[in-house]
Specification:
169 residues, mainly alpha, 2 domains, 8 helices, elongated
Length: 169
């Protein structure tokens, strides 16, 4: 039997992208279905995968945390720095997989985080460089290469521990 680790990673990535508004609830339900097909299983994951398109926008919010918990995956609090960094790493991985262009990655990160998230600062700077290419001596391919280098660095950056949702007892 094949390892379910890649399916867990993909579900985790899509969960954090959904929490940041990068993908729809329907896309997350699709990810839950794909995780089941890949061999991941839990009662909450089955409930999440069973959501219809009409139910997804309403039910994913309540069904996702228990599904992630039952699978031993991390559920990041909305708006947390750790969640933002996880979303950044997920988008970087999608860029390396060819799902986003380097320019799209830099633009989306700059648009979402500006220059406020330290881990994303270099991508925000590179987005600025794209805007000024016509005034300098760099080519789009040179900036693309730097964005891809940064995306690779980000995917290899160890994830931060999620911030606690309630104070320790």
């Amino acid at each position: 039997m094949a390892s379910t680790e890649p399916a867990g990673r993909e579900l985790q990535d899509r969960a954090v992208l959904w929490s940041m508004g990068e993908i729809s609830a329907t896309d997350l339900v699709t990810a839950a279905c794909e995780a089941l097909v890949a061999g991941l299983d839990s009662p909450a994951l089955r409930m999440l995968a069973a959501c219809t398109r009409a139910e997804a926008d309403y039910d994913v919010h309540d069904l996702l945390p228990p599904a992630l918990d039952e699978l031993g995956l991390t559920s990041y609090p909305a708006g947390s720095v750790a969640g933002q960094e996880a979303a950044l790493r997920a988008l970087a991985a999608r860029t390396l997989a060819g799902e986003l262009t380097p320019r799209e990655l830099a633009f989306r990160i700059h648009q979402r985080f500006g220059h406020e998230l330290p881990l994303a600062e270099r991508l925000a700077d590179l987005d600025d460089e794209y805007d000024f290419l016509e005034y300098g001596d760099r080519t789009p391919a040179q900036v693309d290469a730097e964005v891809l280098d940064e995306a690779l660095r980000l995917t290899q950056h160890p994830p931060a521990a999620p911030e606690p949702t309630e104070p320790p007892a």
